[in-house]
Amino acid sequence: MKKISKRDFLISSLAMSAVGLSGCSDSDFIGSPRSSNIHVIDQANASFLDRRTSPSGLDGLDACTRPNERYYRALAEAGIDTVIRYFSDRNNAGLNCKNLTVRERDMLFDYGFSIAVVYQYNGNVAGRYTGARAQQDAAFILERAQVIRPPDGSTIYIGVDGDLSKNSIRSVRAYFTEIRRILGGRFELGVYGPGVHCRSLKDAGLAQFFWVPEAPAWNGTREFIRSQDWTLYQNKTNVDRSSLTAGFGQEVIIDTNIINPKTTDTIGAFSSDNSIKTYDRSKLERVASSRLWVQSDRLDVFDRPGGNVVDRACIARTVHVLRIDGDWALVDLDEDGTAEGYCQVPNLLPLNDMPRWKRSVCSPRNI
């Protein structure tokens, strides 16, 4: 039997994932049931037109009262179906309206979104994760749950925002052990953090969902992604050049996420009827199979095959492949479903083959 090269296998796989897309205009992808467009985002601050500074952004304070309806309507029209939002002890600098409120929850439901919750506060502080700190954090989570009322069985993700050097495996395990005890099985537990902590908590049975940030240099992330044990991968961060966020009259900070169809059909988000959101696996497969890793230090993107360079992408970051034309891929770089140009297919790798990140002069910001 003839051995198939990695290059030929990749082109074949991409061609299969793009069945029915050839010859379509970019606008045909947006909102279509056959689309491979992103459908899950996490949003660091709610999009309100009156985001004034307040100590915590919790209910009852005079801020975050006028939702940016145009922005949320555009998200829904673009095919977003799930928004991940935050519980946090207080707002970070510049992130008014970080906390999910009842007003925002109901507005998200009105637009048809399901909601997932992540607790995150000072997650990158060295030595933060201890059993003692877990008691304080679990009490805060339960307090906010009384207000927001996520249903039992939904998932609470816990942000562990830092590499192994900041928080040891042992201390993070102790923290999750205590969080799990206090929550008492009411919620499923997820972790947002580098691969090393995802692997440790999975092996210890202390978390059920594993959300990996777009930080390819972090300890264990490449190995965990390649193991296919992840639940969510945050593939684009601070997508501020994308039409998903641009032109709405204020700064909106969102990241986009891919669900791993090999491990799950849910991330534990909940809908307005208190059901746990599940996803059609064929849709998850389309989204995942059309995200490819850049394996070259700097990937040039051309206005047409062999034409002029108009953009770039960087190693160990993903591109969204919209169509394959021979050795050329039409790609979306900022996850809004609109093509930025063409790159060469041999410079890409499938999602289960994350390349090793290395420092280079290429900057991924705004791509």
Automatic annotation (TrEMBL):
Name the InterPro entries on file. GH (IPR017853), Rv2525c-like_Glyco_Hydro-like (IPR015020)
Domain Rv2525c-like glycoside hydrolase-like span(s) in chain numbering: 74-257
User: Superkingdom, according to UniProt?
Assistant: Bacteria
Q: What is this protein called?
A: Rv2525c-like glycoside hydrolase-like domain-containing protein
